[in-house]
Amino acid sequence: MSDRDNSLDLAEIEAKLSDTTWSALPQTTLSKRIETLIEVIGRNISFVWIVLMVLIVANALMRYFFSINFIALEELQWHLYAVGFMIGLSYCLIHDGHVRVDAVVEHRSLRTRAWIELIGLSVLLLPFCVIVLEYALPFVTRAYQLNEVSASPGGLPMRWMIKSTIIVAFVLLSLAAFSRWLRCLALVRQPSANNVV
């Protein structure tokens, strides 16, 4: 079996396991621009996972073979993990790769699901993003003003840089949620959407 056959099998499995009906949501000009931006950022930030794996292996080798331990490198592992995970939230949302519990709505029409998604985004996700940003701004600002550093001897300086990831991540997540909101709204406003299953 060739690599091409393997990749086709994986694609078929993923298609069967994933709910592809959300891809039927119409794009708006603004949602397309937002999702393109998030796509570019998500793809470019994905190199963090490779750097993180190399760093973990290097730290383990130094610790077990040479009895060398660098606090800054251990902290850097956590920082890279935080950047990859938090920036990845918005990428995951636009690709509908997040965990969904659709037991109630999975057999409903796409129009009904879009209405439920609109309500969920409006009442839960977007307000949550606003609250997190409201609390994160003074949190990051204070760290920047104090030029906060790691409490550990030999730790990383400029702690405000990693804390600012919270702001970047939740701005991107807000944009991704808004893009999904626009797409759901576009669907429910279509007169022909009644026939979409």
Sequence-ordered SSE layout with sheet pairings:
Blueprint: H1 3-17, H2 29-45, H3 47-66, H4 71-94, H5 110-145, H6 159-189
Helix pairs in contact: 2-4, 2-6, 3-4, 4-6, 5-6
Label this structure with key terms:
single chain; mainly alpha; 6 helices
Q: Output the structural class.
A: mainly alpha
Q: What count of domains describes the coordinates?
A: 1
Pattern of helices and strands: HHHHHH
Distance separating the two termini: 37 Å
Strand content: under 5%
Number of helices: 6
Task: Walk me through the structure.
The protein has 197 residues and is mainly alpha-helical. It has one domain (25-97, 105-195). Helices cover 73% and strands 0% of the residues. It contains 6 helices and no strands. It has helices at residues 3-17, 29-45, 47-66, 71-94, 110-145, 159-189. The chain is elongated, with a radius of gyration of 21 Å. 18% of the residues are buried. The model is unreliable at 193-197 (pLDDT under 50).
Short note summarizing the structure:
The chain has 197 residues and is mainly alpha-helical.
